[in-house]
Amino acid sequence: MTMQETETTVISAAAGAKVFPGSDSRRYNYFEPKGRKATHYEDVTVDVQPDPERYLLQNWIISFGDGTPTYSKDWTALKCTDWHGFRAPDQEWERTHYQRQSTIVGMIQNVVENARRAGAPQRFDKAWVTVLQNHVGAFKHAEYGLGTALMRAQRYGYTQMVNNAILTNASYKLRFAQDLTLYLAEVGSDIGGFDLDAGKAHWLDDPIWQPCREAVEHIRAATDFLEQYFAVNLVFEPLVGELFRSGFVMQVAAAQNDFSTPSVISAAEADYERNLANAVELFALLLRDPAHGEDNRTMLQSWFTHHAGLAVKAALQLQPLWSLPRVKVASFADAFERARNRVAAIGREIGIDADLPALPPVEVGQPAAPAAVSAPVNGAAAE
């Protein structure tokens, strides 16, 4: 009689039930680091979120009532052979994120306190004060909307690395919306007649902002969390967010005797560079996937077509803002061309076609007059 040896699969979670390769080592080598040695970011992030395909031998401990597991790969249309291969370029985790946020808040607080101490808000050009009140006040609602969309999206990533990148993105957006709210309240207290509710009124009713509001609401309504992450960082931000922040406010403010607002806005521009690097790394990984890359490319292309159409419409509707400052030092046509080239370059970096048509000549003619939703501050004319 021949005795046949059989191997029994160990499914117990009891300590010592299974011996893992390298389990007797004194080094953290249970995952493959991206570089030669594991970074602190990898030590505290990789495999923090469990995965039955790796170390959760007893499968999911908790599931939803309909049988959906705690985390599911089906929560996005994009597929990946190894979701654990993603590493955020900024290598941000809880402690470093709190440290950076604290540094930014401290910087902005110093800028505002010094500006107010020097009486700078009283020297702002009157027409520019109206822009701050009505339109920078409106833009904070776009930032808040994107932040809340990402706050929902961060729950659905299959690994902690993906969720961390989306979560810090949401945190930066919500912080910047708060930055603008507090900044306008503080400088507004030094300017007579400054209406803190005007921004909300313009966001809700001004025709200039309605396509922007529509684009944000489409992002918030998306049910695929990676579609939301993609639309925010690879479409809306370069075509609308940077267009307004860098192409308008930061270009124009100094000529209106306003040197504090660009400092506040600059924090959001630095935030975006980090968020963009993380998003590009993730989507480039998905498009390089040997098994699912082409299907992912098709899906991203469809997302781009949908959200870019809304973002371009929103950007073109903002054109009248460039005619509002009394001293005009920037043009919408130049700002939009930079935005168009920016999104095309991002598309090439991840591997999709993101080329958009150039601004037609009719669009750079005389801008339409903006709707009068609220009165100018101190009777200043919206020139």
UniProtKB/TrEMBL annotation:
Pfam families: Phenol_Hydrox
GO MF annotations in UniProt: methane monooxygenase [NAD(P)H] activity
The UniProt record lists the keyword Cell cycle: no
InterPro entries from the UniProt entry: Ferritin-like_SF, MP_mOase_hydro, Phenol_Hydrox, RNR-like
Keywords noted in UniProt: Monooxygenase, Oxidoreductase, Plasmid
Enzyme category, top tier: oxidoreductase
Enzyme Commission code: 1.14.13.25
Superkingdom of the source species: Bacteria
Protein name from the UniProt record: Propane monooxygenase (Hydroxylase small subunit)
